[in-house]
Every structure is written in C-alpha cells, then in structure tokens.
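hey can u run this one w/ flavin-adenine dinucleotide bound, need the structure tokens asap thx
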Amino acid sequence: MTKVLVLAESKNGKLRNVSFEVLTVARRITSGGEIAACVFGSDGEKYFEELAKYGAQKVYVVDNEELNRYTPDCYKQALLKVIGEVQPQIVLTGHTSIGKDLFPSVAARLNAGLVSDCTDVETGDGIVFTRPIYSGKAFQKKQITDGIVMATIRPNNLEAIENPVAAETIKLSSEIKDLRTVVREVVKKATGRVDLTEAKVIVSGGRGVKSPEGFKPLQELADVLGGAVGASRAACDAGYCDYSMQIGQTGKVVTPDLYIACGISGAIQHLAGMSSSKVIVAINKDPEVNIFHVADYGIVGDLFEVVPLLTEEFKRA
Ligand code: FAD
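ok here u go:
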C-alpha cells in the first residue's frame, strides 16, 4: 500500500493553501493508501483539524522552538526524523521558497529522486509528474522508478478538494543539533497587502508603467479586485518597484485565476512566471507584442487610460 507524506507549511499562523492542494495530489496518488502530513513548530498541533479535512489520516507534529522559523538545517533534521518514522514511498510539498530550498538537500541525503515544480500528476503505470521546462515553452513528464519519490507541487495550480477523514496526531520530539545557522529575528515588510504567490488576482506592471507613481492606478485596480500587484524585471530594474514583486524566470512563479499584464511586452522570461495563470488579460499600446499571443483577452491602448476605466467599472459591479 502506497504511503505518502506531505510536508505542510504555515505562514503567519495559518496553513498555506498549497498544503491542501498537495494533500489533494497525495489522495490522487495513493488511491486508498495512507496519507500522513507533518507540521513543524510549537503551534503545529492547531493545524490538525484542517489537515484531516483534506485527507491526512496521521498528522506528525515536530514540536521544537527551533522550528518556529525556517532554516534549512533544522527543517532538514525534522523532516528526516518524520521520514524515518513514517517510512513513506512518496514525500510531497509545495514548490514554495521552503520546498525549493529544503527538498533537494533532503533528497540528496536520502539518495532519493526529486521532481520539482510539478504542474500535474498522473497515476496508472507508476506515478508520472508533469513539469514545465525551457521557461514554460514545453512540458516534461517524469517518473522516478527507484527508491523514495520526492516532489514539489506548484502552488495555485491544482485544486484543493476537501475529503474529511478521522485522523490522529502523533507528537514527535526532535532534538535539533549542530545548527550552522540560527535565525534570531525576522523583520517583515508591513505591506498589509495580499501575498503575491497566493493571490487569486494579480495586476502586473512593466516598463510601460514608466515610474513608481505609474504603479498607483495598478494598485487601485488590484485593491478593488482584492488582488496583489506584480511586476516585470524591467520595471524592477528601472527602480519603479521592489524586486519582491518580480514575476518570471528569476522572480516569482504565480498561477492566479486572473493576471492583468499592463505595459508588459511578454518576454519568454516573464511568461515563465505567469503563463499558467487561468485567465490572462493584456493591456499594451503596441498590438504586435508577444503578450497578446498568450493573453485570453487583449486590450490595445494606453494603460493610463484603460486601467482607471477598469477600476471604475469593477467598483460599480
Ligand atoms: P519591455 O519589453 O520594454 O516592454 C514594455 C511594454 O510596455 C512594451 O510592449 C510597450 O509597448 C508597452 N507600453 C509602453 N507604454 C505603454 C502605455 N502607456 N500603455 C500600454 N503599454 C505601454 N523578465 C521578467 O519579467 N521576469 C524575470 O524573471 C526575468 N528574468 C530574466 C532572466 C534572464 C536570464 C534574462 C536574460 C532576462 C530576464 N527577464 C525577466 C527580462 C526579460 O527578458 C525582459 O527584458 C523583460 O521581461 C521586459 O519587461 P517589460 O515587458 O516590462 O519591458
């Protein structure tokens, strides 16, 4: 019987939605097998009910103060401990900053195969993971045929479906030792805005926005839609906005329900970060730009005229 272990992630005292998406993937893979989830940190137990709602039959909580903040050293020790306990065939998590950092080192330690940034998972003759390659120009199907299978799943890409089960919590004490790095303090930027990687709507600005002030109408539209504001690298490089907003190959990968690209030409490196958005709207004054090839809806016009009009319309709706 296949045993799957899901590393669930919390942020600001809440489980991240991607954890539920990954549990849904786990269900697809096990088809009747066992699903275990693990959470780290001293508030881990409070997530038990939510994890059980999405199908986790066993919830392993590694309660140690060192795990309240992520460091690769301590998370690696904790995850190896849980893997030793559960003995899963498959270990999954979200393709988040933590997943991207932690899973390769744990896979290397276990000599396990790792497939990262999966956008689909099929079962049948083994488990086949689909992941984008060449900045999203093509998709690769990968199968690990030997040993433990590890994979990170792209957030916001596969639907999280509830499947409540009776679950039990198992508390594991973990001695975290020989830490090479210790996080003393995390100073968060108090934006009060929606997290870009979790946003359902993203209004994104490129070089066409022309200045930091040019982002204001985009922010107004995002606020009306309950979304977040992103940017192309050109806009970040030009100093119009912070690099934390960059979307693309060397920025964040996002999969919102609605992506509104304003004054963005659609370079392949930008598309790598947003082309799997469910609906793409492009606003650009040049009808020939590449972004219109990937957009579901295109508006040829000046963004400084179009964006405020959209904001007004959405306010009325
Ligand atoms: P431009 O290509 O200059 O496009 C600006 C657009 O604005 C034009 O299409 C113009 O018609 C339009 N415009 C101007 N004024 C208006 C107006 N008033 N109204 C409407 N439209 C207007 N880029 C990323 O975005 N993310 C990445 O992660 C990334 N990683 C990279 C990694 C590497 C290794 C390299 C080499 C490049 C990377 N880039 C990345 C850069 C990428 O190649 C492009 O240079 C960049 O995406 C262009 O940004 P842009 O579309 O905003 O600018």
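The longest helix spans residues 72-86. anyway lmk if its weird
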